[in-house]
């Protein structure tokens, strides 16, 4: 796909993408950055875009995923820092802060590698702190199925984390 064709087919969605990002993030600058990141992703895959029936729907999905990834990272970092502050009444030195941030980024990266239903369920339960009943209403799954999926996702995350640490040791 050439740049003129890209502009003609994809740029008209920019206001819709911005509204979605702004609705999810609640911050104008972050929403603008997200839309820019989405267009960069789309540009990098411009030669493969012909296979999608609806470029608008595909663009919206990418925008949603980028926003959710950003919110996950932000929440994990905030939670890691607040746990650090609870455990230590002093301000940790920069190496401790860096270690906490790296752990949060690793967990976020591992969560992003989960298959979609598990990724969303982990996000709703552990990042947003929603109750199972709330998640049931959001995703339209039965509570038992949600519990099973989250349990399997946790197990998968544990395995991925163990593999990651094992690869660092070896």
Please give a structural write-up.
- The relative contact order is 0.08.
- This protein has helices at residues 3-10, 14-25, 28-44, 55-87, 94-112, 116-127, 132-139, 143-169.
- It has eight helices and no strands.
- The protein has 170 residues and is mostly helical.
- The termini are far apart.
- The model has no long low-confidence stretch (mean pLDDT 83).
- The protein is 80% helix and 0% strand.
- The longest helix has 33 residues, at 55-87.
Question: How would you concisely characterize the structure shown here?
Answer:
By secondary structure, the chain is an all-alpha fold.
**Biggest sheet record:** none
**Given the C-alpha coordinates, what overall shape results?**
globular
> Would you report the number of β strands?
0
Number of helices: 8
Helix content: over 70%
Mean pLDDT: 83
Low-pLDDT regions: none
Q: Please give the alpha-carbon distance between the first and last residues.
A: 44 Å
Radius of gyration: 19 Å
Quaternary assembly: single chain
Proportion of residues in extended strands? under 5%
Structural class: mainly alpha
Return the string of H and E elements.
HHHHHHHH
């Amino acid at each position: 796909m050439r740049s003129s064709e890209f502009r003609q087919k994809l740029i008209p969605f920019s206001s819709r993408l911005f509204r979605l990002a702004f609705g999810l993030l609640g911050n104008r600058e972050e929403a603008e950055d997200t839309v820019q990141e989405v267009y960069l992703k789309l540009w990098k895959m411009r030669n493969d875009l012909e296979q999608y029936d609806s470029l608008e729907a595909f663009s919206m999905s990418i925008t949603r995923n980028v926003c959710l990834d950003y919110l996950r990272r932000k929440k994990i970092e905030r939670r890691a820092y607040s746990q650090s502050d609870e455990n230590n009444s002093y301000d940790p030195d920069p190496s401790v802060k860096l270690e906490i941030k790296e752990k949060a980024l690793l967990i976020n990266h591992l969560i992003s590698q989960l298959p979609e239903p598990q990724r969303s369920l982990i996000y709703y339960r552990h990042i947003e702190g929603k109750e199972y009943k709330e998640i049931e209403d959001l995703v339209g799954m039965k509570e038992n199925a949600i519990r099973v999926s989250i349990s399997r996702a946790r197990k998968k995350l544990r395995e991925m984390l163990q593999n990651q640490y094992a690869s660092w040791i070896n």
